[in-house]
Amino acid sequence: MPVLSEPVAIEIASSSGSYNIEIGDALLDRELAQTGECLFIVDAFLAPRFAALGIDAITLKAVEETKSLDHMSALIEAIKQRGATRQTTLVGVGGGVVQDCVTFAASVYMRGVPWVYVPTTLLSMVDSCIGGKSSINVGPFKNIIGTFHPPKCVVIDPLLAETLDAEARAAGLCEAVKICICRGPEAFDAYIALDAKPQGSTDSFASIAELCLSAKKWFIEIDEFDRKERLVLNFGHTFGHAMEAASHFAISHGIAVGLGMLAALRLGEELGLTQRSDPRVQAFEAHVRGLVASVQGVAEALRGCQIDELMQAFSADKKHSRSELAVILINNQGAVERIMLPRNEHTLAQIAGTFAGLISGF
Ligand SMILES: NC(=O)c1ccc[n+]([C@@H]2O[C@H](COP(=O)([O-])OP(=O)(O)OC[C@H]3O[C@@H](n4cnc5c(N)ncnc54)[C@H](O)[C@@H]3O)[C@@H](O)[C@H]2O)c1
Ligand SMILES: [Zn+2]
């Protein structure tokens, strides 16, 4: 047996107590050997691994429909049918879809049960695994309801990234660089120094996860409930969610966030804020562009998006108010900042122009 190094541990403070993140090879095997009262809820991709061990896990298909409110009752029935009590720990093993479903179910089942998360996509390893948010879709509205319910611990096993395809790796890196640019020049330079690339090793992903989660820790500890500082982590998301929706989810979440950040650079420049000639902004733009352009079919999916559908989805985002549109841009100091623009015809035309420019320039 290979000798495994000690896991890296990062502690996160939250209003419901602190919890640990551990990062280390083969940690999933350690979780599977636990004997406590727990119920596994796992991505269908990993179901054979659990079946081979004789574990009666609930399996979820990692598609957007799974994280709909309609589907939640079936999940909660399955949890009850397997005899889960208030003492049962739910263990979610999967990407962001499994995470959203298990966070939500754990937060409402018997008014709240503990849960453990084992992220399996790069996106969930570097970003979504901490913060305690669940986001559930209702009808056509993505991520429109949710809860805060931090896990008991997060267990990151970088070896799980071995089976991810190139798109899932690029998507994870889009969210990774987002966190680092939001945190500031030091974190961004440290990210660039790691030479992150989709074809990187699982060791490199472990280092990226450690950097990103340490950077994200600052935001979620200072603003657990997404009221102020943490809001900038939505960089790329309002434009991105619109592209996910208008492409009918042909563009995956992380890649849409990458495209969303490119759109934000355009809008920021038009508003006289973003200095696209700044060396850090240039390095950021080149990295993100390289990531999204490495994914087959993105340009076609983008060209298939209708401006009116993009605008409808953009305008419906929950981060806007009735009178103002929230946009997250790089300001003229090179920092990521949330800015409110008046919700009027002029702003809407600027946003539509941003989408059109991004599509034609891609
Ligand atoms: N709650 C949050 O804080 C938060 C944050 C970001 C994103 N999200 C949500 O997460 C979702 C996207 O999540 P995601 O990108 O992590 O992936 P995902 O859960 O959508 O899964 C994507 C694909 O990867 C497969 N997969 C998972 N692990 C694998 C592995 N180890 N090897 C090979 N294939 C694997 C899945 O079966 C699926 O086909 C979106 O719904 C997004 O809204 C939530
Ligand atoms: Zn995201």
Structure explained in plain terms:
This protein is an alpha/beta fold and 362 residues long. It folds into two domains: 8-164, 3-Layer(aba) Sandwich (Rossmann fold), CATH 3.40.50.1970; 180-195 and 224-360, Up-down Bundle (Dehydroquinate synthase-like, alpha domain). The chain is 46% helix and 15% strand. The chain is built from 14 helices and eleven strands. The strands form three sheets. The chain has a seven-stranded mixed sheet with strand order 1-2-9-6-5-3-4. A two-stranded antiparallel sheet has the order 7-8. β7 (136-138) and β8 (141-145) form a beta hairpin. α6 packs across α8, α10 runs antiparallel to α11 and α13 (307-315) packs across α14 (345-360). The longest helix has 21 residues, at 202-222. Zinc ion is lined by residues 175, 237, 253, 257. Residues 175, 237, 253, 257 line the site of zinc ion.
Strand content: 15-25%
Task: Provide a count of the helices.
Answer: 14
Number of domains: 2
Radius of gyration: 20 Å
Q: Could you tell me which ligands this complex binds, including any ions or cofactors?
A: nicotinamide-adenine-dinucleotide, zinc ion
**What is the architecture of the largest domain at the second tier of CATH?**
3-Layer(aba) Sandwich
Low-confidence stretches: none
Class of the largest domain, according to the CATH hierarchy? Alpha Beta
- Mean pLDDT comes to 95
Distance between the termini: 48 Å
Q: Structural class, please?
A: alpha/beta
Sum up the overall morphology in one term. Answer: globular
Total beta strands: 11
Largest sheet report: 7 strands, mixed
What portion of residues is helical? 40-55%
Biggest β-sheet: strands ordered side by side in the sheet: 1-2-9-6-5-3-4
H/E topology pattern: EEHEHEHEHEHEEEHHHHHHHHEEH
